[in-house]
Amino acid sequence: MTHRFPVKEIALQAGLSTATVDRVLNNRAHVSPQTRVRVRDAIEELSSQEGQFAAKGRRIFLDIVVEAPSRFSREIRRAVENVLHDFHPAAIRSRFAMAEIMTAKDCAAILARIKKRGSQGVCLKARDTPEVRAAIGELVAKNIPVLTIFTDIPGSQRLAYAGLNNVSAGKTAAYLMLNFLKPDDETVLTTLSQRAFQGEVDRFQAFKSELLLHRPDLKLIDASGGGGLNPRTGIDVGEKIKGQARIAGVYSMGGGNQAILKSLEESGQQPSIFIAHDLDEDNLDLLRSDRLTFVLHHDIRADMKSAIRHILAFHGLGEAPGSSESDIGVVTPMNIPKTD
Q1: C-alpha–C-alpha distance, residues 79 and 301, integer Å
Q2: pLDDT value at residue 3
Q3: 156-182: b or e for each residue (b if 16 or more CB lie within 10 Å)?
Q4: Which residues of 260-281 are buried (b: 16+ CB within 10 A; e: fewer)?
Q5: What is d(CA 177, CA 293) in angstroms, rounded to the nearest whole number?
Q6: What is the pLDDT confidence band of residue 56, given thresholds at 50, 70 and 90?
Q7: Among 30-34, 119-123, 232-236, whose mean pLDDT is lowest?
Q8: Separation between Cα atoms, residue 62 and residue 55, nearest integer Å
Q9: In a designed cystine with 192, which of 12, 111, 224, 279 is the match (CB 3.0 to 4.6 A)?
Q10: pLDDT in tens, 152-181
Q11: How many domains does the structure of the chain reveal?
Q12: Is 216 contained in some domain?
């Protein structure tokens, strides 16, 4: 592997010993493929954060652990790397552990490795499970604060939550849906990526309560569990809508919207309204082609900046934000914000 960084820095970034990193760099035997990937990823992270080497303040290592489709993980990584310079003179370095599917056991193992190697803080997007809550508690016992991001784990010892207000998002989606549906419309389709994501469950419960409060006659069809990934989500939706009467509206809380639209088209369904979440690459393309009606958007950079401020405040470096829940923006094909 070509690189321009000291072995010690690569080891710190990868969470490995200098001896192990040296073996990888010199292509020696008895190194697992997973370890080689960790070293490669560490070098890529160092390259993207090179500006932090010039910072002269206290060095802070943050670990970002995320289960999400790669389109959303990329947005999180981009947001983190874009806000790090806002915290100079602190020299903040971020380390990423991201996967499209991360079981509770996988997540707990990652958090255990972080506990072992040390960290100044963890930003975590993960399922709300007993294993993950226990792993958070073990980190906190080692004086490593944990921030939940975008989906909360309220039964844990996490320091704070940073992200959108998911209850408000669900109510906003219901308001938009109610104003599009006709009196004789009967059926609405909902999808979540994982019911173990508390944030999506909060969106769904708020949406369902608000919608049925005003339209108790509506039937909700739920096709959840595809992880927000296009192939699996498309299969789940296709199975759920088979033989159904006209679907008037769709509220997608977890993504996979290209596949959802394809399954709807193959079933001859043309909903009047399709509400999605987040301005990732897929949703931007679908908005531009007028295939989504609304996207509920929040500023991921602001969310990550808020999370980092919480962690720095924990270490006595500045003050924690008064509120770490971001506002919800409603984006249509007519008001797509400019992207970098």
Answers
A1: 5
A2: 66
A3: bebbbbbbbbbbbbbbbbbebbbebbe
A4: bbebbeebebebebbbbbbbbe
A5: 10
A6: low
A7: 30-34
A8: 15
A9: 224
A10: 999 899 999 999 999 999 999 999 999 999
A11: 3
A12: yes
Are 52 and 81 a contacting pair, CB within 8 Å?
A: no
Q: Are 293 and 201 part of one and the same domain?
A: yes
DSSP string, 202-261: HHHHHHHHHHHHH-TT-EEEE---STT-HHHHHHHHHHHHTT---EEEEEESS--HHHHH
Q: Could you list the residue range(s) of the whole structural domain that residue 38 is in? A: 1-48
Pairing of strands 187-191, 160-164: unpaired
Domain with 205 in it: what CATH number? 3.40.50.2300
- Do 57 and 39 fall within a single domain? no
Please check whether residue 277 is in contact with residue 256, taking contact to mean a CB–CB distance below 8 angstroms.
no
| Encoded tokens for 334 | 């007519």
**Angstrom distance (rounded) from CA 167 to CA 156:** 19
Ordered DSSP codes for 122-140: EEEE----HHHHHHHHHHH
Residue 143 lies in a domain: yes
